[in-house]
Amino acid sequence: MDILYKNKTLERLLILTNIAATTAVAGTALLQLGFFKPILSDAQMYLILAAAAIFFTGEKFIRFFNARSKKDYLHFCWFEFIFIVLFAVLYFSAGILWALGVYLLMQIITKVCRTMVNIAAAGKSPAAAFIGSFIALILAGALLLMLPRSHTQPVKFIDALFTSTSATCVTGLTVKNTGADFSIIGHTVILCLIQLGGLGIVIFGAVFALLFGQALNVRQAAAMQDLLIAQTVSKIAKAIAFVFVATIVIEGWGAICLYKMWDLAAPLPAHITSKWFCSVFHSVSAFCNAGLGLFSDNLIRYNFDWRVYGVICPLIILGGLGFGVLENLYDIFATKIKNLLSANYNRPVRMELQTKIVLLVTAILIVGGTAGLLIFHNNTDSHHINLADAFFQAVTARTAGFNTIDINTLSAPAKMILIILMFIGGSPGGTAGGIKTVTLAVIIMAIYATIRKRAEVEIFKRSIPLAIVGKALVVVSLFMAVLFSATFLMTITERHNDFDFIAIMFEAASALGTVGLSCGITPALTTAGKIIIIITMLIGRLGPLTLLAVLTFNIKPARYNYPTESVVVG
Question: What are 474-483's pLDDT values in tens digits?
Answer without folding.
Answer: 889 889 999 9
